[in-house]
Amino acid sequence: MQVSDFDFELPEHLIAKKPLQQRDASRLLCLASSDDAIVDAMIRDLPALVKPGDLWVLNDTRVIPARLVGVKPSGGKVEVLLLEPAGENHIWLAWGKSNKPLKPGTVVNFSDEFSAEVLSRDGKNIEVLLRADDVAAAIEVHGHMPLPPYIDRPDSEEDKERYQTVFARHAGAVAAPTAGLHLTAELMAAMQDAGASFAHVTLHVGPGTFQPVQVDDVDSHVMHEEAYIVPAETAAQVNLAKAEGRRVVAVGTTSLRTLEAASAGGELKAGAGRTSIFIYPGYHFQIVDALLTNFHLPKSTLIMLVAALAGRDRVLAAYAHAREEEYRFYSYGDAMFVPRRCES
């Protein structure tokens, strides 16, 4: 299977650069589980898609303003993208970007009271020691929301709220679980009235989600690794739903990857872990029966994941339909509802 098998053309004007004024105003393309039917709907129609007893699983990670812009003592501009803590005492793994490679010992100043010292470097990967009276507060004050590279504009005050789900709880992501951006408290209440219940997992989304696949053969690709937590309550809810034959619906590819990574023999295991699970056509799903997801980059691991659930030809046909109907693509774009394809 070749990466080029998941390629498609996308006009630039279909890439959503800003969010809609209302979260639940996005469009929703719905696939069927047993045929090739495509239905154009709205996110506000989600309650009609609920089957009584559905368990919808949300990723409650919270995006941190992880992009820091500073200067070296020489005056050279530096960007540091925080990835995850590397231990205690405010040491972080990060990506560094400057006109010259950042050497160990380099100090980057983000303000008079907030700086980072480069401890080590491996390519663009660096380890930094953050210094401030209150490091967490300094990141919130001086950091920028890490918008995806295809949103080629500076972040704004609006992004601090809109590039965050309404149920975000646990800080640590450097990219939003974007399918969840569409949901509001009112919409979720209407889904509950229709018979859905909700559970939470946490997967701290890393920047690798936007990285292009660098190989030609799908089997040769190595996924980035991310940290996740499955609460005991969520494991119990999911396992009961599976035992009773009720649907488990993943809200977003990150929720889906967490559920599948933490499962063994069809049972979800509670606890913390790290995953580099790569899901592409041929994968046998253990937990997830349906997926709510945005539209993804060509040749990306995420469109491969959706194709694993619904079939490559059907997904590419749906994407062609979405382009013809001018759906909005990517993080701030519209969404798809994708049931797992019924086996014949």
Automatic annotation (TrEMBL):
Q: A Gene Ontology CC term for this entry?
A: cytoplasm
Q: Which residues cross the membrane?
A: none
Q: Which superkingdom is the protein from?
A: Bacteria
* SUPFAM superfamilies given in the database record: QueA-like
Q: Name one Pfam family in it.
A: Queuosine_synth
Its Enzyme Commission number(s) read 2.4.99.17
The biological processes this protein is annotated with in GO are:
tRNA queuosine(34) biosynthetic process
What catalytic activity does the UniProt entry give for this protein? Answer: 7-aminomethyl-7-carbaguanosine(34) in tRNA + S-adenosyl-L-methionine = epoxyqueuosine(34) in tRNA + adenine + L-methionine + 2 H(+)
**Keyword tags:** Cytoplasm, Glycosyltransferase, Isomerase, Queuosine biosynthesis, S-adenosyl-L-methionine, Transferase
| Localization per Swiss-Prot or TrEMBL | Cytoplasm
Question: HAMAP family, per this entry?
Answer: QueA
How is this protein named in the record? S-adenosylmethionine:tRNA ribosyltransferase-isomerase
Give the organism the record lists: Mariprofundus aestuarium
